Amino acid sequence: MKDLTKGRPSIFILTFALPIFLGNLLQLTYSLIDTRIVGSFLGEDALAAVGATTTLSNLIIGFLLGLANGFAIIAAQRFGAKDIRGLKKSFAASLMLGIAIAASLTIVGLIFLNPILRFLNVPEELLFVAREYSFVIIAGLLATLLYDVCAATLRALGDTVTPLIILAVSVLLNIAGDLFFILVLKTGVRGAAIATVLSQLLAFVICWLYMLKRYDILRLTPADFKGMDAEQIRFMLSSGLSMGFMSSLVNIGSLTLQTAINKLGQDIIVAHTAARKISEIFMIMFSVFGQTMATYCGQNLGAGEIGRIKKGIRLAILYTCIWCTLAIVASYTIGDQLVYLVSGSRNETVILNATNYLKFDTIFYYVTAVICVLRNAMQGLGEHITPLVSSSLEMVGKIVIAATLVPWLGYTGVIVAEPLVWFIMVIPLLVQIFRMPVLREQKQ
Fold first, then answer.
1. How does pLDDT run across 228-241, given as a tens digit for each residue?
2. Is residue 68 exposed (0-12), middle (13-18) or buried (19+ Cβ within 10 Å)?
3. Looking at the whole model, is its pTM more than 0.85?
């Protein structure tokens, strides 16, 4: 466990963020290897089929991850306030509410999978493969949720190392599973999806057993699952759903944009798939310091350390802006090599469009850095409305662009889409952060 309410904020933020960074990097490394395995052994058709549905899986999985992180904010606040009983109650509620929501999403997703793929404009020749992949991913959502809740709760206690180690084991098994199912059993993209779900299930089992052995305060009893009043459930759902919907609104916008991209042909689908995979690497530090600030602000709010919160927010923005500069340099120097490394494609159309996307968008990453830090810090401080407003603006902006600029400008419209909406969605965050009453208070 790590108490983030004492000591130098710069040291604690960086040491807390480092394992999260390595964990996210591992996750992205697997995603890239998975993409390369599918592209190299199953061909560009299979890669395009997976890429055409990536935004769908990102939407659902991102919602569950946000949900778990939102629940964990309550745990961080309880931990910062030294309220152990409240901590155990919040962990129990996270499991119960999370399982109910994940099960509901699984049922709805499987029932309406075909109409969803049609809505995404997945090309007819890719539809069968896309359906196979998406079906398995959706069927395994419960395993994803259970691991997310356990890992987020550990991070709420300041333990970011254990989720990193468990994730490393899971990623290695996932890669081995990909190769086994695709090369040995010849199960195609369905095998890649099965390997993903099985690795997530194993990660949950390992994480759960470790928590039971290592942390007395996380050993739940039947009493911890009882006596939850409506106010506590409302409080948990307010935090969890706010984080979940914040992620979902962003991904709904991307999902709508993907429907327009899927009309531009297979080369563009592959180019965008590769560009987005690389963008996920470039943006990794945004989510790292976002997760860090949610926990950091939650613990310090529980302890009443308002001055530390302000300093932590400033430091997180500084660190992410430094990272933005490195991403810009990489885009302009080795962008084309990264595209080939991810996709395995030497198609000039693929490489040109993907590198153009990277070169233009990375210039505006500084705005995104501020967005990610502020909206996660606000969530940690109990301000759930403004981050949702900001994410809603992103969703609406991408929907409008998908309907206007993309039909007019083609993939150029996609390239300019995100920077345009970033400048819009940062406005309510900047306005609200200076108006929040809690940040005007100082500990007496």
1. 777 778 888 888 88
2. buried
3. no
